[in-house]
Write a structure and sequence with these properties.
By secondary structure, the protein is mainly α. The protein has one domain: Na+/H+ antiporter like fold (Up-down Bundle). Helices cover 76% and strands 0% of the residues. The chain has helices at 3-25, 29-50, 52-62, 67-84, 89-94, 96-122, 136-146, 151-158, 165-195, 202-234, 239-260, 264-274, 294-318, 328-356, 366-372, 378-385, 393-421. Helix 6 packs antiparallel against helix 14 and helix 10 runs antiparallel to helix 11.
Length: 422
């Protein structure tokens, strides 16, 4: 199938699923789409069992496009920008140290806790996983790709929770920034895996980490500042031109980041915050002037909802080829891994909140809400698909564990989050 045909099929399915969710399921869109995408996957598998050529064609369809490339380089920048321009930037700036500490400590702690836990589990004889040959670095790679939460899923859920403004901003901000930090940690560990531990020095790792983080933030701030000045010059009545400018910036920034090896995720988030709907572009006496016209924000909301729908359908479809390689022991291991991922997330959030609460005020049970609201999504799956094929069967195992965590967080945590908050 050509790109246009695939896009048409995905849009038709997304429209149909969204309508079914709106009129019948009446669930949060993210969860409703995920459930329907899974049902579609099982229907395809069922038909494929009776008629194998059908399953072969469905599997071939998933291989006609690179899901990881599509998400990381095309969909994610648009989704992150749409999320960043809607965050309460005033609350975020007032609480920036809290958010950055939560994001960085949480990702780093979860990476090493989950990675170490998985490495211990695969060594246990009763699971029979030693033949997959996962090294400690491989397990840390899994820890780094599953540590960042999915800001698209998190933001969609948080908006419906009726939380206080400060708590909502902390959850949204932490989710936006831990993505960027998680990707940097993953790329750092991936370079160690590819080049070999013996060929990597602490200095080279430090340079890579700093280049990705500082470079991404600096470029995002520069383009955001220039974009803000340009949009102010255009004036809000020329909304068509503002749409073109913002589209160009969101497409251009990842290209520059790729060339200079900066973090495009962090760059997009920072640029989006500069063009935020709550930013002050004039003096306080003159009130708050939105960076862009209302039409532009509605356009980006439409992009957000459309790509979000397509993303979760793609996640459901991408799971189809994996079922050919699944073993019963995978399910047992995934049970322990899911529990350990959630527990590690809880510790990674509770420790910084406990330290920060000595000087800042937190609502009761904030750590529990942030932990249970830590939904995983497309980014984790895209990073898992980006793992080198040199892992062999170990890559299939990590992919299955990634899907298990994503499905648990979206379906179980997502469905119960509102009750937990209450």
């Amino acid at each position: 199938m050509h790109v246009l045909e695939i896009s048409t099929v995905l849009l038709v399915i997304a429209s149909a699923f969204s309508l079914i969710n709106l009129r019948i399921l009446k669930l949060p869109l993210t969860i409703g789409l995920m459930i329907q995408a899974l049902v579609l996957s099982f229907i395809i598998l069922g038909v494929g069992t009776l008629y194998p050529p059908f399953l072969d064609k469905a599997t071939a369809l998933t291989q006609t496009f690179d899901f990881s490339e599509l998400l990381v380089n095309v969909m994610l920048p648009f989704l992150l920008f749409a999320g960043a321009i809607g965050v309460n930037v005033h609350e975020l700036l007032k609480d920036k140290t809290t958010i950055l500490f939560l994001a960085s400590f949480g990702v780093l702690f979860s990476t090493f806790a989950v990675g170490s836990g998985l490495y211990w589990l695969v060594q246990q004889p009763f699971l029979g996983m030693s033949s997959y040959g996962l090294t400690y670095v491989d397990c840390l790679l899994f820890g780094s790709l599953i540590a960042p939460t999915d800001p698209i899923a998190v933001l969609a859920m948080v908006k419906k929770m009726n939380l206080s403004s400060i708590t909502e901003t902390r959850i949204a901000g932490e989710s936006l920034f831990n993505d960027g930090i998680g990707v940097v940690v993953f790329l750092t560990l991936l370079s160690i895996k590819v080049e070999g531990v013996e060929n990597v020095t602490a200095a080279s790792v430090g340079v890579l980490f700093v280049t990705e983080v500082i470079g991404g933030i600096a470029l995002g701030a520069l383009m955001g500042y220039l974009g803000l000045k340009l949009l102010k010059y255009i004036e809000n009545e020329h909304v068509e031109l503002e749409v073109l400018v913002t589209l160009s910036m969101v497409l251009l920034l990842p290209l520059i980041c790729h060339y200079f090896h900066f973090s495009a995720v962090l760059g997009i988030v920072v640029m989006g915050l500069f063009l935020n709907r709550n930013i002050d572009t004039d003096d306080v006496e003159e009130g708050v002037q939105k960076a862009m016209g209302d039409y532009v924000y509605k356009f980006w909301h439409l992009i957000d909802e459309t790509l979000n729908a397509i993303l979760f359908i793609l996640i459901g479809i991408e799971i189809i080829p994996l079922f050919k390689e699944v073993q019963s022991s995978f399910f047992i291991l995934s049970f322990f891994v899911v529990i350990w991922v959630v527990f590690s997330r809880w510790i990674g959030v509770t420790v910084p909140i406990s330290l920060l609460s000595l000087r800042k005020k937190f609502e009761p049970k904030t750590a529990l809400i942030i932990t249970w609201g830590g939904l995983r999504g497309g980014l984790s799956i895209a990073l898992a698909l980006n793992l080198p094929d040199t892992l062999g069967d170990g890559k299939s195992l990590i992919l299955f564990l990634t899907y298990a965590v994503v499905l648990f967080t979206i379906l179980v945590q997502g469905l119960t989050l509102k009750k937990i908050v209450k």
